[in-house]
Amino acid sequence: MNNGQYHYYAPTPNDSPYSDVNIFRCETNAYRRLKAKGFCKRGVIPDFYGAIECIDPREWGPHLDMFLDDRWPPNAVLIEYIADMHQMDLSTFSKSRLASLRAILGDIHDAKVLHDDVYPRNMMVVPGQPDRILWIDFDSAQTFPENEPLTSRQQQWMVTEIQRMDYFVNDLVCSRWILTKYGY
């Protein structure tokens, strides 16, 4: 089991009024929605075991001493630990893995969740389980109401996220082709 521990940061005037910036709430909302939709069971995101709110760091010293001076108590997200997980890169590359990651992202959008951190560091492969690829790190995710249509702004965010994923896929395919062609 792995956990994410969060320092609370209050929103600033520079933060967008259209998105949630509370990383604990972003992550827990996304995991709750995606678990309810079967993503954890499919193995395409780590299994979500729950969240712990308002932890008293004095009771967990020295492990949580980093939170002693915080204005608000820490929270934690409990998720599956996945041994030997590696990010998608040229050594773990395959067109089928990239296609699967792209399809999973589409499914995440269908669940009305915007990952909002579509970078290779969050696209994972488990080498001992060749067919297991997954998305991680939902602390920037935006979870939209299921019973309301997406706004035009939210729709554009989804389109932009898919474009970022496609850009990464195309870049990785081209890099792989160059390395193969020139024997690097």
Q: If you had to describe this structure to a student in words, what would you say it looks like?
A:
This protein is an alpha+beta fold and 184 residues long. The chain has one domain (2-181). The chain is built from four helices and eight strands; from the N terminus they run βααβββαββββα. The strands form three sheets. A three-stranded antiparallel beta sheet has the order 1-3-2, covered by helices on one side. A three-stranded antiparallel beta sheet has the order 4-6-7, covered by helices on one side. A hairpin with a 7-residue loop joins β6 (123-125) and β7. α3 (95-110) runs antiparallel to α4. It starts with a strand and ends with a helix. The mean pLDDT is 88.
Question: What is the topology?
Answer:
Layout (H helix, E strand, L loop, with lengths): L1 E5 L16 H14 L2 H4 L5 E5 L22 E5 L6 E2 L7 H16 L2 E2 L8 E3 L7 E3 L6 E2 L8 H30 L3
Antiparallel strand pairs: 1-3, 2-3, 4-6, 5-8, 6-7
**Based on DSSP secondary structure assignment, what is the total number of beta strands?**
8
- Cα-based radius of gyration, to the nearest Å: 18 Å
What amount of the residues lies in strands? Answer: 5-15%
The H-and-E topology, N to C, reads as EHHEEEHEEEEH
Count up the domains.
1
Task: Label the overall shape.
Answer: globular
Strand order in the largest sheet: 1-3-2
Helix content: 25-40%
Query: What structural category do the secondary elements indicate?
Result: alpha+beta
Low-confidence stretches: none
Tally of helical segments = 4
- Determine the N-to-C terminus distance: 38 Å
Largest sheet: 3 strands, antiparallel
Mean pLDDT level: 88
